[in-house]
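Our example pasted here:


***
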Amino acid sequence: MEQALWSRSCRALRQRLESLRRAGVVQLVRPEPFAVQPAGIPPARADVGPAAGDTAAVAAPAARRPVARPQVEEVAGGPSAAAGTMAPAPPEDRPPSLSRPAALDVLRHEVAHCLRCPPLAASRTQTVFGVGDPEARLCFFGEAPGADEDRLGEPFVGAAGKLLDRILAACGLRREEVYILNVLKCRPPGNRTPAPEEIANCRTFFERQLQILQPEFLCCLGATAAQTLLRTTQPLGRLRGRFHDHQGIQVLVTYHPAYLLRSPDKKRDTWEDMKMLLRAMGREIP
């Protein structure tokens, strides 16, 4: 009989707690301790010992049912509140969005410690993240750092970089007004073409850079940059002369300045590409 009453009490308590949870209650008040006694048995008094002649009580005190002390029941769906309250859980704190420079610094730190390509990580002097105005409308996207870039930690600072500066000047732009980055953040030994697995390892970094920068226009310098960004195998000659879309960014493809140093006859074609870019940006052609 006692066991049946106890089981019914437990079921009733569980049903009550479930009802409160559905009603939005996340915390119950801890009541003062009380003793749960089976029906028909008077509560025991702490100051009165067993009745005279009650040998069963003296011989077997463990047979008495222990006092039940209900604990605070925390309902799923919210953290504990202070005793005596039933307020809902406070809203989750959300950190404010980082500015573009701050977000780029976070990513720059991650790139600097990257070891995804062990041979490149072992041979590099430093990673080459990117440089320029984080708020720029126009980005230039190259292939990989060379020896000068590896030494100085900045993209396009060698002979190809000087030619890029002259192209920018011809367009009425300065390096400080654009943003420049590469597919790879480490120099491939001997300035070789990046391997597919190296490109795959670095894709996350340059894609996140572009997501942070959100430029309106992007100029791919060379076939490696264009084919990597656009995920295509089409040759550069077929990619030139029109705009492509990459996640809402207008992408134009032209020759890499290093290629122009070897093939100066392609400079005229590059200038035509730059004029197309300037017209799309609404800038006057010098």
Summary: The radius of gyration is 36 Å. Residues 1-89 form one domain.
